[in-house]
Amino acid sequence: MRLEYIGLSELSGSLIALEGVKDVAYDEMAEVTLENGERRYGRVILIDGDRVVLQVFEGTRGISLENASTHFTGKSMDIALSKEMLGRVFDGAGRPIDALGEIYPEERRNINGSAINPVSRKYPRSCIYTGISAIDGCATLIRGQKLPIFSGSGMKHNELAAQIVRQAKVPNQDGEFAIVFAAMGVKNDTAEFFRRSFEEAGALSRVVMFLNLASAPIIERILTPRCALTAAEFLAFEHGYHVLVVLTDMTSYCEALREFSSSKGEIPSRKGFPAYLYSDLASLYERAGMIHGRAGSVTQVPVLTMPNDDITHPIPDLTGYITEGQIVLDRELDQKGIYPPIAILPSLSRLMKDGVGKGFTREDHYDVSNQLFASYSKVQDARSLASVIGEDELSELDKQYLAFGDAFERRFVHQSLVDNRTIAETLDLGWKLLTMLPRGELDRVDAKTIEAHYVEGAWKELFERKQS
Questions:
Q1: Whether the Cβ atoms of residue 329 and residue 117 lie closer than 8 Å to each other
Q2: CA distance 170 to 121
Q3: Is pLDDT above 90 for 31?
Q4: Taking all residues of the chain, what is their mean pLDDT, rounded to a whole number?
Q5: Which pLDDT score is estimated for 171?
Q6: I want to staple 343 with a disulfide (CB 3.0 to 4.6 A). Which of 102, 236, 246, 330 is the partner?
Q7: pLDDT for residue 365 is more than 60
Q8: Rounded distance between C-alpha atoms, residue 215 and residue 205, angstroms
Q9: CATH number at residue 92
Q10: Residue 21 is part of a domain; what is its CATH number?
Q11: How do the residues of the chain divide into helix, strand and coil, expressed in percent and rounded to 5?
């Protein structure tokens, strides 16, 4: 028997309230039928006795308090899943928007997912290559890791996210690779940029895209990462794909969550965000990982913009507590014209040490990374000193560090939007730059490794090639 409730007790924004409702559950889906026969869908967000509040996905415009009828489906929101999703484009709620019709589902699955038993988790090892030296060389992305990108308003994080999607790969012998890309709160031109970028690069066939536009209701923005991660888990743990999930921009998601919380009348916490922001973000980020007995993996790269470039803001602050490192974009580098403007010193990958080196990338990888970090940190000391006493008063060694710092930013960190460097090219480039410094300054590398890779004056080749 189909039970319907006629009429509404209250309507406010995208929320509707009903009285006298029995036997419904939090997060349950509802179908609202308008007077003209149009159907809209909502989700239960609040239960107070027999009073139920729904968030309507398509908004409440045109809904009548007297004549609207509501039917509760008895289940949470789910989406259709199939390998046919690869190469397709969906909206934030998982509905196809590429004019190719509905997919034939292998199964339907609750978008909220289920927690991975910590005992069944497999420790992440082996990396995903992005073709970007600053990431592959110094903050390597490990399969099964969650590694966020901290950016700022107006910086080139969209271009970086698109480049990672186009270039990311795993070693061929390690299995099939797929990407789930979710954009939240983006403008039409930004959504078109992503779609066109993937099509032109021939990468769309391995990508599942979820696009939530800024004009869409905020409830859809809250659903988008959950739909994307559900698709990723299906491809990874049912079909054995190594799946990279790129989520941009998590700040839009968190702001939608704040607006959603405010509309429910919840007591705000820091900066007006709900007190459960940490646990909500954790429910998304912790869906990355590998499982014993399953061939696939889910790796996350969430992108977020820091309001006012403040890394202590609740969104980056809480994200940093949950994830295993971060890649930080620097506005000063961006203003110098360096792309990608990745700040090497505050960026790190906490799982890098166990996924690089012999048997994974190259045996000298971790040593090169450590030495580049150490040398570049001395560049900052030399620059600080130069700002006080002037560059001419610096010692010869400090001047060498200044030259190394400039070359490191211009040759190693900087690369074009289409420059896809192999890990060997990245590490060789790092060694050539290190030859700008005296051999005695390489204190993070053992003598045997230096002997094998340090070639006196190798850095000159970089400048000669640039001039020619």
A1: no
A2: 20
A3: yes
A4: 92
A5: 80
A6: 330
A7: yes
A8: 27
A9: 3.40.50.12240
A10: 2.40.30.20
A11: 40, 25, 35
For residue 433, what are the domain limits? 364-462
Contact 6, 56 (CB under 8 A): no
Amino acid at position 261, single letter: S
pLDDT at 465: 56
Q: Domain check: are 204 and 302 in the same one?
A: yes
Q: Exposure string (b/e) for 180-213, b if CB count within 10 Å is 16 or more?
A: bbbbbbbeeebbebbbebbeebebbebbbbbbbb
User: What is the arithmetic mean of pLDDT over 326-343?
Assistant: 96
Cβ atoms within 10 Å, residue 98: 13
The CATH number of whichever domain residue 396 belongs to comes to 1.10.1140
DSSP string computed for 88-105: -EEETTS-B-SSS-----
pLDDT band at 117; cut points 50, 70, 90: confident
**What span, in angstroms and rounded, lies between the C-alpha atoms of 121 and 126?**
15
- pLDDT exceeds 90 at position 346: yes
Q: Look at residues 109, 68, 105 and name the one whose alpha carbon lies nearest to residue 88.
A: 105
Number of separate domains in the chain = 3
Which DSSP state fits 338? Answer: -
Same domain, 342 and 237: yes
Q: Read off the amino acid at residue 253.
A: Y
Peptide bond into 428 cis (omega under 30): no
Q: Tell me, yes or no, whether 405 and 342 share the same domain.
A: no
> Residue 1: what pLDDT?
65
Question: Looking at the domain assignment, is residue 240 inside a domain?
Answer: yes
- Alpha-carbon span 112 to 29, nearest angstrom: 13
On whether both 368 and 329 belong to a single domain, the answer is: no
Choose among 360, 365, 375: nearest CA to 449. Answer: 365
The C-alpha atoms of residue 255 and residue 152 are separated, in whole angstroms, by 15
**Residue 248 phi/psi, 5° resolution?**
-140, 130
User: How many CA atoms within 13 Å lie on the side-chain side of 359?
Assistant: 5
Q: What percent of the chain has pLDDT over 70?
A: 98
Q: Is the pTM of this model over 0.85?
A: yes
156: tokens are 């080139």
Residues 6+ apart with CB under 8 A from 408: 372, 375, 376, 379, 433
State yes or no: cis peptide before 340, omega within 30 of 0: yes
Distance separating alpha carbons of residues 287 and 94, to the nearest angstrom: 18
CA torsion sign, 155 to 161 to 167 to 171?
positive
Maximum distance among all alpha carbons in the chain? 88
In a domain, 314, yes or no: yes
- Domain identity same for 99 and 228: yes
Q: Is 121 found in the same domain as 20? A: no
Are residues 229 and 284 in contact, defined by beta-carbon separation less than 8 angstroms? yes
